[in-house]
Model the fold of this input.
Amino acid sequence: MRRLLQDLTIMLRANLWLLPVLAGLVGAVFLLVAPPPPMHATMATGFAGGGYAAFGEKLQRELAKQGFDLQLVTSDGSFDNLNRLLDDTSGVNLALVQSGIEQSLPAEQQARLHSLGAVYQEPLWLFHRREVKLERMADLQTLRLALGADGSATQALTRAILQANQIEPDDYPSQWQAVGGTPAVEALFKDELDAAFFIGPAENVLIQRLAAAEDISLVHFGRAAAYQARLPYLRQVEVGEGLLNLATDSPARDLTLLAPSATLLVNDDFHPALSALILDAARQVMAQGTLLDKPGQFPSAKPVTLPLLGEARYYHDKGLPLLQRYLPFRIASLADRYIILLIPLLVLLIPLFKAVGPLYRWRIRARIYRWYKYLREVEHKLDSGTPPSALHAELAQLEQLEDQLAKVEVPLSYSSELYDLHLHLDYLIRRLRSLQQRQQAASASDHPND
Done:
């Protein structure tokens, strides 16, 4: 046992050079690997109490289960959210934006944004007073109409719908008003408006209030396919009879609406590795669906209004990355990054460890063979006829070397080579002593009287 421990000690000493090499390789891995994604993000939603704010709060709670901190920032809606994403000083790197709104941006600004996908539908509702006849968009020109507030996503979509019917802003009648939300609802009830556009989920309080009113009706978009062909960020939405309010049977028949989507947009400050985490949290939020969205329908890669991040596309195509299916996000993201560099590290380590054996043998044998150089020099002096008297110093050196060799330690498997060196050294010492004795005998015979 003692001999085994001694051999292990020798082996470890002979391979100490591996420690700085391994430390350097591991250090390079930590320096070169991308840092883990942050466990926080800032998301712009919408005005307090609105649909975007409600979704953001649900998403925040779902992400908190993974230890992720989602900071919510209220805003004035989609246009304000776009501006915050493009403002490098806003701190916002994620926002809910109505699909199609980004088309108002110049191409160079659109290039700075990416999409994670749509998270739910936002139908366009056109309510009107029941006594008003409204069959086509052209009929609106004689009515008192609410287009949506200035700068709102509702007004932007309303304008797009009207332009598709070749009704340009210059042709808007004077009785059309830039108003939306609660003021527009109140004006409808007071008979101050004949019709009004709204955007929001079916569960929205204002939509539910209008649906429950007996003197308010909802417009059917019979040409929805034609609109969708011209405005590809819209989708047809089927609203079944009584879906909004069973008590009042609203709507009284099956209707077709047009719907943009609430999309998650990000800027360059957003870490792409967070895509799957946030999208999966959105899937949990929408797991039960809504009145108009089927369970599991969202998040969705369509409509494609801006390029999807590569990580978001992977999620929509294949779901969560493998490690995130079984591990918490923080651990999975770290493991994923280091596994990527593990392969090149192994490529370097395999030949390194293959070299350990030959290098170890060379270092052990070097303890023995380095003495042979001196032995060969002494033999060369003997063979070249050097007078024995001149080799006295060599004999003293060889005897000193013999003492040093007695302290040399090598593994048991190399003992035979060490013993061979001892034999060769002993041979030279005996040869030199024999020459000295012959020299002394010859000197004594030449001077017998001395």
